[in-house]
């Protein structure tokens, strides 16, 4: 798995974290799919705060730190996951999909201990 990219359009040098590499393996994301999403995104980059960018292509979202600490002179791909379009009230929204994380369920009231 490739872990460093030079001269990525609009980003410069980009390193890929071990976490992102393992997420790609677990989700079955190929090197080619990742390369296309990173190097040729189909949607404009979306800034989240001052130092986080989302980049997407073909249902794949890449989360990039623009100023990682410690700063090695490269942007850092923090994680990668699949998204799918969801239609809510006539507008299309992207929803996060990650088979490795379970949705927490509320605790039933019968399981909550009573105060003495």
Write a structural description.
- The protein is globular.
- Strands 1, 2, 3, 4, 5, 6 and 7 form a 7-stranded mixed beta sheet that branches.
- It contains 2 helices and 7 strands, in the order E-E-H-H-E-E-E-E-E.
- A hairpin with a 2-residue loop joins strand 4 and strand 5 (60-65).
- It has helices spanning 18-27, 31-39, and strands spanning 4-8, 12-16, 46-47, 52-57, 60-65, 75-88, 91-97.
- With 116 residues, it is α+β, with helices and mostly antiparallel strands.
What's the layout of helices and strands?
Layout: E1 4-8, E2 12-16, H1 18-27, H2 31-39, E3 46-47, E4 52-57, E5 60-65, E6 75-88, E7 91-97
Keywords:
alpha+beta; 7-stranded mixed sheet; 2 helices; 116 residues
| Residue windows where pLDDT falls under 50 for at least 5 positions | 98-113
Helical amount: 10-25%
Separation of the first and last Cα atoms: 57 Å
DSSP, total strands:
7
User: Which radius of gyration do the C-alpha atoms yield?
Assistant: 18 Å
Tally of DSSP helical segments: 2
| Backbone shape | globular
Query: What is the element string, with H for helices and E for strands?
Result: EEHHEEEEE
Mean pLDDT across all amino acids:
81
Structural class: alpha+beta
**What portion of residues belong to β-strands?**
35-45%
What composes the largest sheet? 7 strands, mixed
């Amino acid at each position: 798995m490739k872990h460093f990219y030079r001269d990525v359009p609009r980003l410069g040098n980009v390193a890929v974290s071990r976490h992102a590499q393992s997420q790609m393996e677990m989700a079955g994301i190929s090197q080619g799919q990742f390369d296309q999403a990173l190097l040729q995104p189909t949607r404009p980059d979306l800034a989240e705060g001052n130092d986080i960018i989302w980049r997407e292509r073909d249902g794949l979202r890449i989360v990039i730190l623009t100023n990682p600490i410690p700063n090695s002179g490269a942007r850092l791909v923090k994680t990668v996951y699949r998204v799918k379009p969801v239609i809510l009230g006539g507008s299309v929204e992207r929803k996060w999909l990650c088979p490795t994380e379970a949705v927490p369920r509320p605790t039933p009231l019968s399981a909550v201990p009573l105060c003495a």
